[in-house]
Amino acid sequence: MERIVVGMSGGVDSSVAAMLLKQQGYDVIGVFMKNWDEQDDNGTCTATGDWNDVQEVCQLIGIPYYAVNFEKEYQERVFAYFLEEYKKGRTPNPDVLCNREIKFKAFLDFAMQLGAEKMATGHFVQKGDADGHSLLLKGADPNKDQSYFLYMLKEKQLARAVFPVGGMTKAQVRALAEEFGLPVSQKKDSTGICFIGERNFRQFLQGYLPLQAGEMQTQEGQVVGQHMGLAYYTLGQRKGLGIGGSGDGRSWFVIEKDLKRNVLVVAQGEDHPALYSRYVRASQLTWIGETPPAREGEPFQCTAKFRYRQPDQQVTAVYNGDELYLRSEDWQRAVTPGQSAVLYQGDICLGGGIAEEASREAMLDWVSILP
RNA sequence: UGGGGUAUCGCCAAGCGGUAAGGCACGGGACUUUGACUCCCGCAUUCGUAGGUUCAAAUCCUGCUACCCCAG
Q1: Predicted pLDDT of residue A9
Q2: Cα(A367)–Cα(A279) distance, rounded to whole angstroms?
Q3: pLDDT of the residue at A337
Q4: CA–C1' gap, A265 and B66, in angstroms
Q5: For chain A, how long is the longest CA-to-CA vector?
């Protein structure tokens, strides 16, 4: 009997995933990952409730369960990077790294040590196969597809993974949970940084990054307010600026973080040109498959998501080593350095990179590159 | 010191005798395994202040206060 270790968060999706695998006759082991240690106001660990849910669910399903601690790995491989990026004025996405480094590396290794053939998670993604090569496909529920967060995986990692709920809709998953009387069937979907959870983001950052207040200025250099530290803002941000009523009365948005001058550059109106770009340069490009969709320097068509849940955007892409250049058909709003650009062809997730800069104008000689 | 003007929510701003629009900001919620965006709801028993006229005033009258402008 094939053994599969399921990464269980205490949520509906991973609980149903474990249950389905058990039904299919696998030797299922549930494992709860603890990657962040934090006490809430009452002094109890915020992960305790989730661990309790995991235990309840596993007992109900009738599978053994364990908890494993990856706090150190998370700290070193994910959180350190997270803070470094903020210090550079960028806006990192820790969850894509968490998946590559923790869930599909540290945890995968752990699963193998438990004698498993495969690991499983409750991600809403599907797997495909092309001549024996694993493909990452979007989840069947277009509203819940989480392939964006898994683009950094390699096909070798993927080959070891199964996603039992990826072919279902969220509604179907909940219905199954309900049907089997899982105690978490009505549990609210979790959001926020994985393992760290929902919290006041500024308060959270304050504990790790020094505050350095400075000026908010327009592009023309007019001072329109004070900011409390560039790290607390991201491109395209509207809320939290606190400078309403000035200028022409429209909303203000962050259009640039000038680290050298410690100035937050803002502009008025959601349609301000500075919020939009068409060209994106990304680094740290990774392909899921061993064979990229095109050769270096050879432009190709695909779609991209510049943020989670964004509809596919038609782009022309070309890459050089781990540098990726994209030209979008449509204007893209607030493409932010540090955020990921994830590439697709149809339902296949190809991989992606981390945005370094976005521009209204070409940063490459596209005319000569394009056919 | 004369003359004129303006004072309505944190900011901007409707209102012109009939019982306080709207925008921005802010707060709450929804959405969401990053950060954002977006959407929904809330947000002045009160109109610088003290009186007066009137059935009824932010809206009319008077005093006071503050600020602005022009004269000096």
Answers
A1: 93
A2: 13
A3: 98
A4: 35
A5: 69
Nucleotide nearest to A194 (CA to C1'): B33
DSSP symbol at A55: H
* Distance B48 C1' – A113 CA (angstroms): 77
pLDDT in tens, A283-323: 999 999 999 999 999 999 999 999 999 999 999 999 999 99
Which bases on strand B have an atom closer than 7 Å to a protein beta carbon?
Answer: 10-12, 22-27, 31-38
Q: What is the DSSP letter of A142?
A: T
A172 burial level (CB within 10 Å; 0-12, 13-18, 19+): middle
* Residues whose CB is less than 8 angstroms from the CB of residue A295 and which lie 6 or more positions away in sequence, other chains included: none
Whether A42 has a pLDDT exceeding 70, the answer reads: no
CA A251 → CA A57, A102, A177, A198, A236, distances in Å? 47, 40, 43, 26, 11
When the pLDDT of each residue in chain A is averaged and rounded to a whole number, the result is 94
Work out whether strand A223-227 and strand A214-217 pair parallel, antiparallel, or are unpaired. Answer: antiparallel
* Cross-strand pairs, A232: none
Q: From the CB of residue A245, how many other CB atoms can be counted at a distance below 10 Å? A: 5
A228-275 pLDDT, tens digit each: 999 999 999 999 999 988 888 899 999 999 999 999 999 999 999 999
Sequential DSSP letters for A70-87: -HHHHIIIIIHHHHHHHH
What confidence tier does A43 reach under pLDDT thresholds 50, 70, 90?
Answer: low
Question: What are phi and psi for residue A37, nearest 5 degrees?
Answer: -110, 115
Q: Which two tokens stand for residue A354?
A: 């981390």
Q: How far apart are CA A362 and CA A223, in angstroms?
A: 30
Residue A1 has pLDDT above 90, yes or no: no
The residue among A217, A231, A219, A222 whose CA lies nearest residue A264 is: A217
Q: Distance, angstroms, CA A140 to C1' B56? A: 65
Closest residue to B26 (CA, C1′): A242
